[in-house]
Sequence to fold (236 residues):
Amino acid sequence: MFWRGREREIKDQNAGPPCGQVRVLVVGDSGVGKTSLVHLILKGSSVARPTQTIGCTVDVKHTTYGTSGSSSYSFRSDSERDFFVELWDISGHERYQDCRSVFYSQINGVMFVHDLSQRRTKTSLKKWAAEIAATGTFSAPLASGGPGGLPVPYIVIGNKADIAAKEGTRGSSGNLVDAARQWVEKQGLLSSSEELPLTESFPSNGGLLAAAKEARYDKEAVMKFFRMVCIFPLFI
Fold:
């Protein structure tokens, strides 16, 4: 693959520590904008007409881990190390549900993506986490598991913030759920402390937002996540 040659080139030029390679899954329901978000992270720009992912596509983001410019990670000496972050964009279409576990191997991190204008897409992240935790294999797993027992670092990004902002609460799936809750509570069928199934929570990691169509995302938070993913193979 092309990044193998790039890895050797950097190693020869710098004569420093060898390059590392980590794998990050990008998962979420079909249509939430995973492919557009990956393109934005890699290219720094939006894509007009993203193609539908068939099975899985793999792209690579180059990043550098080291003490310079990153005081939060000062465990090592002043040397830096290059990493190639493989972003495995997994199709969320139901037709691939029975076979996508073949892509769940040697995982270093997971990026969960949901559509802010469709609340059900965040609810379904629980299913994604459980599926990956149950069928995947992991590199440098954490001692304590995350959602669904996921044993590696993860990040959650709510995409299509531009659409959600235009719609507001009117007409969105979230508004329908809120209206249904109020009606059920008034009928005395549900106490205020109980949740409707569609509003089940999922850890949000600070509620990161993105609008891939408008080329907006929290670059600093995503890069911090990549650095975290790169650290664990070194220290665990």
